[in-house]
Design goal:
Elements: E1 2-4, E2 9-12, H1 24-28, H2 39-43, H3 47-51, E3 55-65, E4 69-73, E5 78-82, H4 83-89, E6 105-114, E7 121-132, H5 143-148, E8 155-157, E9 161-167, E10 172-178, E11 181-187
Parallel strand pairs: 5-7
Antiparallel strand pairs: 1-2, 2-8, 3-4, 3-6, 4-5, 6-7, 9-10, 10-11
Length: 202
């Protein structure tokens, strides 16, 4: 699923692939100075290392926020923050303060890393809003990494042809096609998005 914005930017929310294909942008991050708690450093760790839930403290910008999760990105990569699972696992106390987290906020997340079901995630213990930030520049569309799932949780930009649009109470679900391959996108802000049959390709 994708989260799309009025300016045409989309963010990958989930992907499905038999194995993780390391995209070029992730390899390029090796050239940067990587801190122990950078998103890239979490993503590159072995699943066995993550299974013991090592502690992390990460400062990043929020690229998507729901009641049960966040997607955040620092200067190295993006990652999924699973609040719901953190509550179930007891990592986050149920009486913990849950601040409103606007899109583009800079946050500090303290918690643990986890292998996740598809790629590494963060289970937060606390989330502190530090102030407003700037959304990262979206990466360009690479069909290989996008359709392999390697762009999972990353802020990307692409163009697709709408094949179908279904309206729900809070969002639109779009069936799109790019480079001859189908995918789904979710438009989170239904009220500010106006779609009709003229937007759907015949």
């Amino acid at each position: 699923f994708l989260d799309s914005r009025p300016d045409g930017r989309v963010m990958v929310l989930s992907g499905h692939a038999p194995s993780f294909v390391c995209p070029q942008w992730l390899n390029d991050s090796l050239q940067a100075v990587i801190s122990k708690n950078s998103t890239f450093e979490i993503l590159r760790r072995e699943r066995d290392d993550l299974a013991v839930n090592p502690p992390v403290r990460l400062r990043a910008v929020v690229t998507r926020a729901t009641d049960s999760s966040l997607f955040v990105q620092d200067g190295t990569a993006g990652i999924y923050v699973n609040i719901a699972r953190a509550l179930i696992r007891g990592v986050m106390p149920r009486d913990a303060s849950r601040p409103e987290v606007p899109l583009g906020s800079t946050v500090e997340i303290e918690g643990v890393a986890d292998p996740g079901g598809f790629s590494p995630i963060i289970l937060p213990r606390s989330i502190t809003v530090l102030g407003s930030g700037t959304l990262p520049t979206p990466r360009g569309f690479d069909p290989v990494t996008f359709f392999s799932g390697a762009d999972d949780s990353q802020f990307v930009e692409l163009t697709g042809v709408v094949q179908d649009a279904v309206e729900f109470t809070t969002h639109w679900r779009l069936s799109l096609e790019a480079v001859g391959r189908p995918f789904l996108a979710g438009l989170a802000d239904r009220k500010s998005t106006r779609l009709n049959s003229s937007h759907v390709s015949e």
